[in-house]
Structures are given as C-alpha cells and as structure tokens.
Amino acid sequence: MQVHFTPELEAQLTKFAAQKGRNPDELVQDVMARYFDEESRFTDAVIRGEEALRRGDYLTHEKMGLRLKRFLRP
Fold this sequence. Notes:
Blueprint (H helix, E strand, L loop, with lengths): L6 H14 L3 H32 L5 H12 L2
C-alpha cells in the first residue's frame, strides 16, 4: 500500500521521525496502529453507553449535578 502526503506533511513526518530517531515508515505504522486502537476503544465505549441508556442505567443532568455537589462538599 502506498500513502501520498502533501510535500509539507511529508517534510513534517521526516523531520519528526528524525527527531525521534525513527524511520518514517515505522512511525506511520505506529501512528496508524494507535489510531485504530483508539477508534476501537471509542466505538466500544459508545456501544456500552447506548446499551446502558437502553437499560435505563444513566444519570440525568440534575442527578449528576447533585452527585457533583455532594462530592465537592467539604
């Protein structure tokens, strides 16, 4: 697979990789792996939130405000 960057982005990638002592190709692979991991975690969290909402397991804005006041009370 080939990915084409603008000259400016490629220059940034090359400079950043050099600063980190990394190969630009390896750096891009690491960045993409982290991106997909984070997207997967985010998607899972959204699904869990939707499931909780369907079960009625959530706090209203008012209830959250009350909990926060109790938590922050000295």
